[in-house]
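Let's do one together. I've listed all components of the complex below, 1144 residues spread over four lines.
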Amino acid sequence: MSTEMSTMLRRLIESRSTILAAGAHNGISAKLVERNRFDAIWASSFEISTSFAVPDASILTMSELLETARVMAEVVGIPIIADCDTGFGDAANVYHMAHRYSAAGIAAVCIEDKRFPKTNSFVDGCSELVSPGNFAAKIESAVRGRGDSELLIFARTEALVVGCGLDEALARAHAYADAGADVLLIHSKRRDPEEVLEFGRRWQRRTPLACIPTSYYGITREEIQAAGIQVVIFANHAMRSAVRAMDRTLARIISACSSSEVEGQIASMKELFELQGMDDLVGHFR
Amino acid sequence: MSTEMSTMLRRLIESRSTILAAGAHNGISAKLVERNRFDAIWASSFEISTSFAVPDASILTMSELLETARVMAEVVGIPIIADCDTGFGDAANVYHMAHRYSAAGIAAVCIEDKRFPKTNSFVDGCSELVSPGNFAAKIESAVRGRGDSELLIFARTEALVVGCGLDEALARAHAYADAGADVLLIHSKRRDPEEVLEFGRRWQRRTPLACIPTSYYGITREEIQAAGIQVVIFANHAMRSAVRAMDRTLARIISACSSSEVEGQIASMKELFELQGMDDLVGHFR
Amino acid sequence: MSTEMSTMLRRLIESRSTILAAGAHNGISAKLVERNRFDAIWASSFEISTSFAVPDASILTMSELLETARVMAEVVGIPIIADCDTGFGDAANVYHMAHRYSAAGIAAVCIEDKRFPKTNSFVDGCSELVSPGNFAAKIESAVRGRGDSELLIFARTEALVVGCGLDEALARAHAYADAGADVLLIHSKRRDPEEVLEFGRRWQRRTPLACIPTSYYGITREEIQAAGIQVVIFANHAMRSAVRAMDRTLARIISACSSSEVEGQIASMKELFELQGMDDLVGHFR
Amino acid sequence: MSTEMSTMLRRLIESRSTILAAGAHNGISAKLVERNRFDAIWASSFEISTSFAVPDASILTMSELLETARVMAEVVGIPIIADCDTGFGDAANVYHMAHRYSAAGIAAVCIEDKRFPKTNSFVDGCSELVSPGNFAAKIESAVRGRGDSELLIFARTEALVVGCGLDEALARAHAYADAGADVLLIHSKRRDPEEVLEFGRRWQRRTPLACIPTSYYGITREEIQAAGIQVVIFANHAMRSAVRAMDRTLARIISACSSSEVEGQIASMKELFELQGMDDLVGHFR
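Okay, and this is what the predicted structure of the assembly comes out as:
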């Protein structure tokens, strides 16, 4: 399973100039990502933490994140990239993480160079990095932990997020690629994409680059391609739209004590049965 | 915990003419139901099945439904009514169910008189009822299983859904109230609310009534009150609005290869951090 | 994963005259089964139910049994045969079961022709069978549910257990083999093995046979081979010995208010660290 | 639930000179601890890690340890003291831990002053302590996290284990008691109990003491009482006896290809059905 989906993701990366992934937090959001023809699913720890209504700050454990990724893997046919935060501890934890995620049929794991327990990158002043050597050891540990599987390892540097600058970000990226990372994710929380684009222009190695244009959403496809960034992750929009929509729907229902007004704006029961696979079940079995 | 939330729900039912509940499928949707001032959360098996992207047809087990209800209970301060389908088997299963849900701090469980494995009531031609005696035995078993806790037991009859008519529905309702049901849920899948309203008018016992106005959404608060129905459950609208919103957002992102256009229509990162409780965490700990 | 372990089990069955499996209920018992050179692990619903201290009567759900099998699969290198009782409902449940167990890397699932919810076969007077056609449909459903994977499907008939006699048992076995069962498990609760042996002698098809010599423990390897039974499952002895040992140890400790007397008779901390893989972890990481 | 069992444990501690607890790792071992009349169950992270066959080194997450404690809580009527290692991260993690364990009906949590990720105390040279202030902050966080519940907080110092000496151990113990610890656990890995006894003699505060006589098993009840230690935890013997017994049973079965010889030495199926509660289920329901 893992190997199958990992292989699919490796081939996508080898054959396409741009890979688009979108964040999901459960089976249905993963299915919608697939139905909208994204190439891969980002099993976002921000989205999943939100779905549990707990802070995106290492409060959920690997168990809950893994189980959620597994639920997705059982219902979609595209690769899942699991956002694994810091790797849940030290290099020993990362070893077990890689073993368990590959056994679960997940295509890729992504770990970042923040200290455990982490705080979401968009919360100011809370993040601290581990040393490059320490993080490189985690990557090597993930490589060992995946064993024979093809599990991809995304290494994410937060050097720009914590304000260390481009040189440090590049130095770390080189160390992580040397340690065996399959993809390098360069993260930024600025409104303009310039530092990410500059990073891309200065990156000359074959290890592919990924980015998450949350704050610098004005970036264009052309800019991304010109900078040589191959994997683009829209990491949190499914959840952000779901929350807005649920909130409005609930507000309208309670104020009217009726769902009459919202009926036209929400998916029908029939549409949800289709997404569930109900017709198949009934047709074959009941 | 269970006793605390169960007591809160019992008091609400004793003191209010109308109780409004809304369906949820995870921690965040539960939190939004609470924030919008509903009285209680309906831990909907339809919504939860949708969230796993599997048919609402006894494919999820009690374990997954219970775990989801528990996640909700840990983050909200209003009662949860857990939609427990058929009780997951026979009376022995119901006994264990009541024991486990009360230990998890859930205020109420709702079981229905369909045969296990069930199919969602809005799927035509798939539902079959167990005998009234068989279902009354399940209710008695739930009463024993809750032990000293105050767990409420909602008994739901599908007699109208399968076309057995009002007399059968009323006869079953009497048997279920005799067996110890705390609330009687009368379900219907017709577009007009007439059979539900007539049921309400003919029900003369003190056991409160509940209804789920999904198909007969045109029903008014006044009609509900006039018919003596006290608990109104908007069972699936949160999920239906989330699916529609996520689908549209993902479609727009992939067609533009950019989230630029959707930014204004979705919740901000900041709003989601608030819902997660991130500020509290950062303020106290990091 | 599934395919890998399933293939290993298929090859074992093709190449060996006798396959020995033993029951387990968690990671460590599975590891001990492997260390003692059994060919496969029986993820026993009786043992697992005992480990949760609930009746072996469909009280645990598939979720808990699957999760336990997965824990085993992550720590051993031999195939796991998962005891899946009745398949957890009807043919639709069996379909999802086969899909999920194969995704979890389990080599084989075993379903039996008792009615859901089941009661353990060694409890008198509680078991009732579904019709042969109904059960054959479950097997076909498992075949479809496994998709491309090599997951083996064991079909277990309880015809002898409920007293239907050999002819009925054989008729059912033929129907199940026709439906696609990979292995036929003939169960019995008599003290003497005669009915099992006779079944074996009368079975002329290529579908291999399995048995569980719990009550007829006097049976010899020679008798088993002479009857053409290939897979022998010692289904519950690990748990039965663990319970006896823990009970005695605890009794001695409490009566002496000291563990001094039991020290010599129990495994050392060091031995348990080895089984945990602690040395590896410390050597590599800490 | 939590409050109920926490209150029971508080009363035991107030009314008895010695409280005896024993380690368990699943429902059945917990039930055997209860049946042998221990006062409380120690939900041992060493035993639970062993049951998963992974190192006792923060490889299991809180989710797995909590779920295991919950399984125990659902089947016994005595208090459970959950071994929570370091609290699974920093003070923010501890806050959530206390909230979730109290919601699960667990009587007490025990956290220790090792750095996360921890390694078992009996593994040489791997442990490092956090500062007393850092750990006191965790205790305060647990106090806040338990909210209105009566959850007890055990604070365990590893100062003797890492060789810091008695003075440091006592200084830490005072800081932890000041921070709100309900019970102080003094741990040691020496063969003789002298340092633990000396600690007890020098401890003059009302906060009760606990110890785990694994390595210094020669200690007597009289010595423990004379030193003023009130809670004695036999933390790992159930698992150690289970492993030894399962290993021997499996070895004998495979060498004989028969369970005939072991039948007399292991618990009967009937005894396990009793422990499962099967008679009750069958009597009432099937």
